[in-house]
Every structure is written in structure tokens, then in C-alpha cells.
């Protein structure tokens, strides 16, 4: 998120015409067409986030990658050796911002804020916990889990609880004594 990314469109022969069709989850179809004989690029309904990279032949640069750029990317090349087609489906992974604290009742609370997809939260030692999910307008989800020990002997033996956050963008764990 925030960086640039480059998608390529492999082909054989000499490039004649390149077409990228972008169907984002949000917004309408964007079409970029570049003809090598005239060296002209035509843009239709495309933001500045999408740029052809003539220095990299058929590459499409996605600037300031964000959730709005999620979607399907289709590339078509007409060359001296025929027509070539490549398809991409771009999905954003947004790592959550994890935190662990004690609430007013002295119970450990673990939060994984604004992740995409939602993070999975678990506790050591195992106990009962309640998990709540709150969706945000940008496609991210905050997960909040409150820990309570299964029985009083667990609470007496150990007052330390460890929250583990699992997410495709990375894992995190931290312990706390409330």
C-alpha cells in the first residue's frame, strides 16, 4: 500500500499494439492503448495511478497502490508473432495494527485494527473470549477480543495472557498481566 507496483505482459515478436483493460472494484473500466507505429497512448477513464512504462515494453505501473486499485487487470498484445493475453487479479493485503491492553475490569483486550482480510486472534492460555469485528468503509476490518480465563484456578496460577494475531501479511504476539 502506498508504493508502486509493476505488472508485465509477456509476448513474443515485435510489439505492434498494447492494450490494458483495468476493472477496479470501485469505479468504471479503464482502458490504456499504446500503438508503437505512432508512439501514441490513448487513455479512457483512467486515473493517474495507472501508467504505461514504455521503457519496460508492455509493463503497467500502478502508482500509490491502494485498495481502490483492487480488481482485474487484462493485457492484450498484438505482435508480429500473434496475439497474447495475460490476466491478473489484484488483491490488497493490509496488515492490521495490533495492540494489547487491560480494560476497566482488569481483563486483557487484544485488538487488530484495520486489517484486510480480518485478522485471526487467539489466546494462551486458552480461555473463553469474545471477538467483535467492525468493518470500515475502505474494506479493512478491526477485530477486538476480550479474554477471560475458563476457571478461577487458571487465573490464580497465571495472570499473564498472550494474544496471538495471525494474518497473511504477518503474525504478532504479545503478553500482558492485568
From TrEMBL:
Q: Which BP terms in the Gene Ontology apply to this protein?
A: regulation of neuroinflammatory response
UniProt protein name: MOR1B protein
**Gene Ontology cellular component annotations, sorted alphabetically:** external side of plasma membrane
Keywords, A to Z? Answer: Disulfide bond, Glycoprotein, Membrane, Transmembrane, Transmembrane helix
Membrane protein topology class? Single-pass membrane protein
Q: Name one GO molecular function term.
A: signaling receptor activity
Domain of life assignment: Eukaryota
Query: Which subcellular locations apply to this protein?
Result: Membrane
Residues annotated as coiled-coil are none
Q: Which InterPro entries match?
A: CD200R, Ig-like_dom, Ig-like_dom_sf, Ig-like_fold
Q: Lineage of the source organism?
A: Eukaryota, Metazoa, Chordata, Craniata, Vertebrata
Please report which protein family the annotation says this sequence is part of: Belongs to the CD200R family.
List, alphabetically, the PROSITE patterns matched. IG_LIKE (PS50835)
Q: Where is the Ig-like domain positioned along the sequence?
A: 1-91, 110-177
Please give the chief subcellular localization of this protein.
Answer: membrane
